[in-house]
C-alpha cells in the first residue's frame, strides 16, 4: 500500500470537514507505522479507540452539513456511513481479540475510505454545495 499523504485532491473546501479528514490521514500514517514496526497491540487499539470516536463525530458533522445544504443524496450517503461504521465496529472486535491480519485489514479499510469515500462519495456533496453557491450569486 502506498504511503498516504494529505493531498489537495482530498480537500472539500469546508474547513471543519477538511480538518477531520486530515486527522484521518494522520491516523492512517500512524497505523502504517505501527504495521511496519510489528504493530504492537496497544498501539493499534489506541488507533481504534480514536476511530470509534472519529466515526461518530465526523459522520455527524458531515450529515449535518449535507442537511444544511439540502443535499438530495443524504439518505444514500447515510447508508454509506452506516456501512463504514459497521466495518469499523467489526474490526474493533477482531483487533480486540488480536486476530491475525486484522490490523492490516483496518489499514486497507482506511485506505479505501480515503480514496473511494472521500474522493468519490464526499465529493458529490461538495459539488452540490458549489452548484448551490453559484445559483445564489
Ligand atoms: Fe462521508
Short key terms for the protein model shown above:
binds fe (ii) ion; elongated; 137 residues
Structure, described:
- With 137 residues, this protein is mostly helical.
- The protein has a single domain (14-136), classed as Four Helix Bundle (Hemerythrin (Met), subunit A).
- The chain is 79% helix and 0% strand.
- The chain has four helices and no strands.
- It binds fe (ii) ion.
- Fe (ii) ion (FE2) binds at residues 62, 77, 81, 117, 121-122.
Could you give me the name of the CATH homologous superfamily?
A: Hemerythrin-like
Please give the oligomerization state of what you see.
Answer: single chain
* Residues in β-strands, percent: under 5%
Q: What order do the helices and strands follow?
A: HHHH
- Could you estimate the helical fraction of the residues in percent? over 70%
Q: Any idea what the radius of gyration is?
A: 16 Å
CATH architecture: Up-down Bundle
What small molecules are bound in this structure?
fe (ii) ion
Summarize the structure.
By secondary structure, this protein is mainly alpha-helical. It is built from 4 helices and no strands. The longest helix is centred in the C-terminal third of the chain and has 35 residues, at 102-136.
Amino acid at each position: 500500500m502506498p504511503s498516504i499523504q494529505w493531498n489537495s485532491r482530498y480537500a472539500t473546501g469546508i474547513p471543519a470537514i477538511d480538518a477531520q479528514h486530515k486527522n484521518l490521514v494522520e491516523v492512517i500514517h500512524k497505523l502504517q507505522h505501527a504495521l511496519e514496526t510489528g504493530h504492537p497491540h496497544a498501539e493499534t487499539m489506541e488507533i481504534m479507540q480514536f476511530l470509534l470516536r472519529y466515526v461518530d463525530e465526523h459522520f455527524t458533522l458531515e450529515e449535518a452539513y449535507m442537511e444544511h445544504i439540502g443535499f438530495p443524496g443524504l439518505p444514500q450517503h447515510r447508508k454509506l456511513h452506516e456501512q463504514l461504521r459497521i466495518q469499523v465496529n467489526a474490526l474493533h472486535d477482531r483487533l480486540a481479540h488480536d486476530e491475525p491480519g486484522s490490523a492490516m485489514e483496518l489499514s486497507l479499510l482506511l485506505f479505501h475510505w480515503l480514496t473511494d469515500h472521500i474522493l468519490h462519495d464526499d465529493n458529490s456533496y461538495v459539488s452540490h454545495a458549489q452548484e448551490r453557491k453559484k445559483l445564489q450569486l
